[in-house]
Q: What sequence folds into this?
């Protein structure tokens, strides 16, 4: 049964009635980002123990402090440029930006003085909340509505749990009339008064191209292809003149993402820390996400001129920062030590999240990847 925001449900129903079954990517786009009623665009998304899901920022300021150390190292290895840009996409309420900038101002004042922090934020409700939280940083903060509005920059692009929330196409392997197994696409249609998933030929030529890189798996295998993630990564990479792209999220390399034991894919719907059984529950009030397929993300960056710098889990990334940068050995109080344990512990967030680094005109390595294995081997590039 359909549940959720009545106006958003009617908006989706009207579009299907007028245009026929819609790709799951289009349904997900509306459910999360429709201008007035989408889960993210309306401000319904609540992160933390009292919200819908828990993320690194929920742990406390230590996450921002450690990334601030890594940003300062990038600045140092870029030759201390007088204008150092940090771009964040998916900044939510601005908590991470506040934590990172506070840490930089205290521990790396010379770097801090050169920083301009740009937030890519298309939604007014989040812009207003970010503006309120970051008011004390004044002229250092600037907003753009999209990556396309950025000027070419020297510095860092950072995101935390951005790519997992971008709209995905659902595909299903099925036996064709000639007996071969082919990929078909899953669409959202109307059945009586309900939504349902139906299967048909692939509708998007870009999806057809992407599926050529996906191994053909036995019939009955459902998975996702994220065209939006690759597109966004290309846009980010094209804007970076010199520096690093750091992306933190949860996912798998292509070989693991499309392995035989993952026959139902990674689509998940969450509300109040509960997994819902259908994307048609709590439409506009629940998060919809999938794991990131890291190999395609790195390849998309390569087509726009960046090269893989490192790939590792969050545990090893932060361990590298702490061991490699003297300033990372901050005097952690009792609560901060607990937060650090949550970020690093393999059974908590340490292994669930991975960090991908891509670089342009940046021949250096970073402390965060000190304990990483060979990036091209890990991603199957």
A:
């Amino acid at each position: 049964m359909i549940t959720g925001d009545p106006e958003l449900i009617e908006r989706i129903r009207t579009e299907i009635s007028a245009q026929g079954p819609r790709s799951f990517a289009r349904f997900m786009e509306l459910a999360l980002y429709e201008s007035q009623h989408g889960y993210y665009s309306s401000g319904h998304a609540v992160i933390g123990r009292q919200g819908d899901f828990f993320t690194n920022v929920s742990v406390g300021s230590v996450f921002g402090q450690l990334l601030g150390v890594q940003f300062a190292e990038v600045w140092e290895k870029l030759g201390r440029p007088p204008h150092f840009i940090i771009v964040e996409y998916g900044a939510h309420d601005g908590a991470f930006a506040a934590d990172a900038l506070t840490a930089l101002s205290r521990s790396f004042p010379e770097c801090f003085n050169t920083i301009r922090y740009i937030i890519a934020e298309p939604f007014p409700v989040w812009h207003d909340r970010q503006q309120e939280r970051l008011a004390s940083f004044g002229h250092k903060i600037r907003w753009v509505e999209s990556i396309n509005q950025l000027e070419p920059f020297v510095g860092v692009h950072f995101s935390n749990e951005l790519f997992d929330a971008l709209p995905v196409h659902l595909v299903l392997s099925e036996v064709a009339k000639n007996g071969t197994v082919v990929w078909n696409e899953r669409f959202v249609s109307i059945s009586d008064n309900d939504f349902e998933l139906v299967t048909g030929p692939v509708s998007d030529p870009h999806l057809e191209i992407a599926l050529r890189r996906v191994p053909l798996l036995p019939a009955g295998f459902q998975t996702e292809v994220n065209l939006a993630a690759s597109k966004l990564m290309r846009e980010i990479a094209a804007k970076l003149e010199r520096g690093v792209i750091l992306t933190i999220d949860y996912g798998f390399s292509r070989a693991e993402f499309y392995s035989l034991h993952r026959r139902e894919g990674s689509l998940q719907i969450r509300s109040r820390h509960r997994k819902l059984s259908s994307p048609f529950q709590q439409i506009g009030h629940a998060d919809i996400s999938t794991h990131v397929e890291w190999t395609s993300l790195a390849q998309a960056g390569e087509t726009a001129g960046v090269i893989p710098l490192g790939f590792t889990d969050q545990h090893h990334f932060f361990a590298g920062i702490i061991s490699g940068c003297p300033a990372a050995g901050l005097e952690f109080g009792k609560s901060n030590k607990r937060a650090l344990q949550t970020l690093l512990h393999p059974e908590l967030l340490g292994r669930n999240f991975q960090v991908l680094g891509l670089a342009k005109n940046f021949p250096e390595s970073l402390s965060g990847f000190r304990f990483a294995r060979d990036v091209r081997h890990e991603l199957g590039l």
In short: The chain has a mean pLDDT of 91. The two ends are 43 Å apart (CA to CA). Residues 62-77 form the longest helix (16 residues).
